[in-house]
Fold this sequence. Notes:
four-stranded mixed β-sheet; 2 domains
Amino acid sequence: MREPAQPAGNIPAHPKTELLRAAFSGGSAKPAIVQLTFWEGISATPAPRSRTISPRLPPAASPAPAFDLTQIFTRVFRRLKIRQAEPRFRASFRRFTGLRSTIAFKRQDDIEAEISDLFQDASPLVVEAIAEILISRLFRRSPSREARDCYKAWANSPAVVRRVEEIHRQRGRKLLLPPEGRHFNLAKIFDDLNRRFFEGQVAATHIGWSMNRSRRMLGHYDSSHHTITITRWLDAPKTPRYVVEYLVFHEMLHVRYPVERNHHRRIVHSKAFQAAERTFPHYQRAVGWLEGRSSSGSRSAWRTI
Length: 305
């Protein structure tokens, strides 16, 4: 149930607000002008540029929330006791494609913060948590564990997860190249793997090559748009076919084994997923080939999601 509206500028302290208080100490030097983006507490690493295009939309036109966003940021700054003259905050909601939030110095003493309009339905406690996280990151401090846990608990709740996926589908669109590459046809590989390993039960998925030649993010499955993206770097004559097949197989497993949640944690590659992945006939060869071409010679240098 949504909390009853409170008069703007007179927000009563939540019983757990005291848990969000964190004592900070440090120098008074002003930080450099930076811009930070805080995603769902999962990963800020972009997918190989199949890219989800999210045009910059005007401020949200939803009904006004029951709190003053700029006042919350100002109050959190004071609570953190940062040794610097209090800046002027300008905080607003934006129609981002997910739980994106940004904060940046616009002038020496002006800070602009923009958070997803999905926060309009959150409690003031959650908004205070994201404000603390953003301000702390801007001033190169660590946000309190209570703030992080509060935000993650809200962001990973089933209702918010469903809403994020819905917004992602409505506001974003995928850009990826056709599956027919110079050396490999991803659509044919998908159909072949679907027949050989999945009994044709993996639903039709849009598959294609990434817009760039990422050597770190090799593959990505987007559950919101039902797309599989493979890095164009591997569409080369020296790439063994079994390597491309392995990556497509890996992403197809994400369709069969969706992301699991354990309290605040997202489990992308569950034990069942990993066991199924190892059934690929050329699993060790494919991983070994990719490791041999990574910058560090280990799997930690590249990712699939």
